[in-house]
Amino acid sequence: MKFHSNGKLLITGEYAVLDGAKGLALPTKQGQSLEVKNNNSNKLNWKSLDEAGELWFEGNFEFAAGNFKLLNEGNEVGKRLEKLLQEAHQLNPEIFNEQQGFDVVTRLDFNRDWGLGTSSTLVNNLANWFKIDAYRLLKKTFGGSGYDIAAAQHKQPITYQITSSGPSILKTDFNPGFSNEIFFVYLNEKKNSRNAIKHYRELPQSNKNGLIDKTSALTQQFIACETLTEFELLINVHETLIAKTLQLPKIKQVRFSDFPGAIKSLGAWGGDFILVTGNKEEVFQYFNQKGFHTIFEYNKLIF
Question: Does the keyword Zinc apply (predicted)?
């Protein structure tokens, strides 16, 4: 058995999507695969390979009396995976029994420091293997809004919104005619999204008044906009709105004030990727000079 899930970038609605704002999510062409083969033991042997095919994690799990036990003590990645497997098993106990074992190999298409969804693609792949609801598995383990699970399951831009009846996921025709002037730049540091969410949750409610409606309206405007000039204006409006909410300065203001194009933070502010606009040659020259060498053209990363 083999499964594959797509990575993700959240273009609008960061933070606010947790409270019901509509966000625009773009699945990435790069993701993660999971391959499962039966073996003749009651053990699960797990190997995780990075984008270069190098082993970055290896763990062995024993399965007995309905429980997984990590045999490699002191391994934090292994302990998180043990919890994932245990929660998946509780949601569907039919996959594992004590007379059955598996060899599992995961393969990333992207660098796991990039924040494109190492965890969400794993959760979605595991949910597919165990034939369970990926959103339920996410809620029982990593938490978060779930937009990354939606992205893992789609191959085109989507809007994502948490509603009283569950996630609302709609395919959208977001395909800007100026996509050759949109780029994604990695800031050379991975941001801890759990810490970022904790900071947002602890903000006073007065900071968030009107945030959901304003962010949802901006998402629709992003989808509908037809010119780069309008797109850049919307970026600046969105950045101002989130900066005011978080009481944090904009990334452009702090680090790239002399850049002529627009810059938007993506996901947890201060790390992972930013979206930038401009001429290809100028974008690459500017960010390379500042030490940022992981730069993607829109159409090479996004479906």
Answer: no
Model pLDDT for residues 158-187, shown as the tens digit of each residue: 999 999 999 999 999 999 999 999 999 999
Cα 24 vs. chain centroid, distance in angstroms? 12
Q: From CA 274, how far away is CA 94, in angstroms rounded?
A: 42
Structure tokens at 105: 């190999």
The answer on 266 and 123 residing in a single domain is: no
Question: Could you give the CA distance from residue 114 to residue 88 in angstroms, rounded to a whole number?
Answer: 26
Write out the residue range of the structural domain in which residue 34 sits.
2-171
What are the tens digits of pLDDT across the range 202-219? Answer: 999 999 999 999 999 999
- Do 263 and 196 lie in a common domain? yes
Contacts within 8 Å (CB) and 24+ apart, 236-239: 236/262, 238/12, 238/264, 239/263, 239/264, 239/265
State whether 113 and 167 are in the same domain: yes
The whole-angstrom separation of Cα 83 and Cα 66 is: 13
Phi/psi for 57 (5° steps) reads -150, 140
Which residues are bridge partners to 38 per DSSP?
102
Same domain, 156 and 286: no
Instruction: Give the number of domains in the chain.
Output: 2
Rounded to an integer, what distance in angstroms lies between the CA atom of residue 293 and that of residue 54?
Answer: 22
User: CA of 259: how far to CAs of 32, 190, 285, in Å?
Assistant: 34, 22, 11
Report the alpha-carbon distance of residue 49 to residue 16 in Å, rounded.
Answer: 33
Please identify, among 116, 147, 171, the residue that sits at the C-terminal boundary of a domain.
171
Instruction: Tell me what pLDDT residue 162 has.
Output: 98
Continuous segment of H or E residues that includes residue 62: strand 55-64
Strand partners, 25: 10, 158
- Which pLDDT value is given to residue 74? 79
Instruction: Report the run of H or E that residue 81 belongs to, with start and end.
Output: helix 76-91
Please answer whether residues 256 and 238 qualify as being in contact, where contact means their C-beta atoms are separated by less than 8 angstroms: no
Residue 194 pLDDT: 85
